[in-house]
C-alpha cells in the first residue's frame, strides 16, 4: 500500500458517535482537519448544533444509539448521500446510567480515597445495590449501541472497498477496578465484539480495533468528582489525565491508510496503568 502525502483522511467519509463532547468531539475536529467529511452523531442535538453549526464538512445527527431503528435511519442518510463509508468511531457511551447512580458512586469513591489517605482498609460494595434497570441501561448504550452502529455501517464500509471501525472500550474492561459491574461488563464485551468482528471483516479489508482509555479529561470522567479522578490517577505511572485531543490523534491514525495493518487490537491510552 502506498501512503498518501496529503491530509490523512482526505476524501474519506466518516461517522463518529458521541460527537457532541469529549473524545468524540475531539475526534470530529481532528477528522475535519485531516480532510474527512464527517457525520457527527450524538444524543444531544443542541451540543452538535453548537459545535458544528458553521462547518460544512460536518453533518450533525441527533441520535440515541440504543435505538436500533434510529441508528438504521441515521446510516441510511449516509447511504443516500454517499453510498459508502470509510471510517466509524464508536465513541458514545456512559459510565453510570443516571444522576442517582453518579451520586452513589461518588460517595463511595470519596470514602475509599479518604480511607487510602489514612491507610485504612475499605471494601466498596456495589453488586447488591445495582437495580436491573441500571445494568440494562448501561449495557444498552455501551454494548448494544456499538453493535447497532457497527451492523449498520458494515454494508457501507464494504461498498467503499474497506475501511476502519474503532470502538471505545475502557481500562475497566481489562483490569479489576472497584466500580459498579455494568460499566466494566459492557466494556469487556466491546473488546470481545471488536476481536470477533475483526476476524469476520478482515476478508473485506475492514479493520476493527478498540481503545481502552483510563484517565481522560472529559465531562464523563469528571462527573464523579475529584475523588474518582485521584483514585484512578493513583494507578497510573503518568500522573495526569490525557486530553481528548491526544486520543483523537490515535483515531486519525487507526482510521487512515497509515493504520492499514492493525486489526483486532486493543490500544490503551492509560498513562501506563495497563501494560501488556
TrEMBL record:
The lineage of its organism: Bacteria, Bacillati, Actinomycetota, Actinomycetes, Mycobacteriales. Belongs to the short-chain dehydrogenases/reductases (SDR) family. Signal peptide: none annotated. It is an enzyme of class 1 (oxidoreductase). Keywords: Oxidoreductase. The keyword Zinc does not apply. Coiled coil: none annotated. GO terms for molecular function: cyclopentanol dehydrogenase activity. CDD domains: SDR_c (cd05233). Its EC number is 1.1.1.163. Pfam families: adh_short. It comes from Corynebacterium comes. This is Cyclopentanol dehydrogenase.
